[in-house]
Write a structure and sequence with these properties.
The longest helix has about 50 residues. Helices cover about 80% and strands about 0% of the residues. It contains 14 helices and no strands. Helix 3 runs antiparallel to helix 11. It starts with a helix and ends with a helix.
């Protein structure tokens, strides 16, 4: 029993650290006043954010509301399943008619989806992703006008760079551009495989929903911070190392994103996420994650650190297996880009 006590004490300390970092990440994600401040500083940012609300909120979610509240009730009135005034004997006579009405109503609703919702979904997805990049660009520029935060951030980044000797510097010129493109391609593939992992965990009995929630939180947190890391020119290896080292903070940051969509249907969840995602991108732009996590680490300097959690290990391993099936030249080029 005495041998277990130190283990229990260490576990309790690490759980406390993880809980505090999770709460810090959650709090940073909910600092939506930064969005108001940044939109006040940049008219372009305000316009782009308003366009996201208009497309995904008013048009997309509004169309869903009209379908469920107006179109479907009208179709049910015109093409009913049954008549309440009809007797049992008469019901048997009109059974085939009611079945035809039901089929026709379902067919018309599917036409509404095929010719309106699905094209609108694709259009919204493509246009929103283009706008997210503009929002992140304008938000980062608006942060630059504030002065001190960017100076502090750059100092913190310099400190992280000096402490991380394992991350090689990216060469200048065409070589650096090619490495940057390779990193972006590898990052997209890695997150694609990670998304498949997230999707698969939803089918695990009992614990699947909880695992799905945590993995989705990490995925959305990474997406939110990726724009900022692109602007500050963090390499892929450095991003993954920082993310996995501060896994509790990013789990907390991504939780509000997932809570907003976790209990809705896929289409409604997409509409809500498309509205809220640019807001969380802007809060991530204004979040000094390096300073927050370093401050908490100093607070527990005398205790055992949480350690690095290999969040992307399964996705990375699967991706490497897939890349091993490619021709040797393409495989070597992708591995060199990842390493650099």
């Amino acid at each position: 029993m005495e041998d277990i006590k130190p283990f229990i004490e260490i576990s309790r300390t690490k759980l406390k650290q993880a809980s505090i970092l999770w709460a810090e990440g959650f709090r940073e994600a909910c600092c939506l006043h930064r969005v108001v401040l940044l939109c006040y500083r940049s008219k372009k940012l305000l316009i782009r954010t308003g366009q996201c609300f208009l497309l995904n909120g008013f048009i997309f979610l509004g169309s869903l509301f009209v379908l469920n509240s107006v179109v479907i009730p009208i179709l049910q009135w015109i093409l009913p399943d049954h008549y309440t005034q009809t007797g049992c004997a008469e019901m048997s006579e009109f059974h085939g008619v009611f079945r035809f009405y039901s089929f026709l109503r379902g067919f018309l609703i599917q036409l509404f989806y095929v010719f309106w919702f699905y094209p609108l979904y694709v259009f919204s997805f493509i246009l929103s992703n283009l706008w997210y990049n503009d929002i992140a660009t304008h938000g980062f520029a608006a942060m630059g006008r504030s002065g001190p935060s960017v100076v502090e951030s750059s100092k913190q980044n310099d400190k992280l760079t000096s402490d991380s000797k394992t991350h090689a510097a990216r060469p200048a010129g065409l070589g650096g551009i090619m490495i940057g493109i390779g990193e972006q391609v590898y990052s997209v593939l890695l997150l694609t495989f990670f998304f498949l992992e997230v999707y698969a965990t939803g089918f695990i009995p009992y614990v699947g929903k909880a695992l799905n929630f945590v993995l989705l939180s990490w995925m959305y947190a990474y997406y939110c911070f990726e724009y900022k890391w692109n602007f500050t020119e963090w390499g892929l290896e450095k991003r993954l190392d920082f993310f996995e080292t501060n896994w509790a903070f990013f789990a907390g940051f991504g939780s509000p994103c997932v809570l907003a969509i976790f209990f809705f249907s896929p289409l409604v969840g997409y509409g809500l996420m498309a509205i809220l995602f640019p807001l969380f991108v802007l809060t991530a732009t204004g979040t000094e994650a390096e300073q927050v996590t370093s401050a908490q680490r100093r607070r527990f300097s005398g205790a055992d650190e949480l350690g690095k959690l290999p969040i992307f290990y399964a996705a990375d391993t699967l991706l490497i297996r897939v890349l091993s099936l490619l021709p040797s030249e393409a495989q070597g080029r992708m591995q060199d880009d990842k390493t650099l």
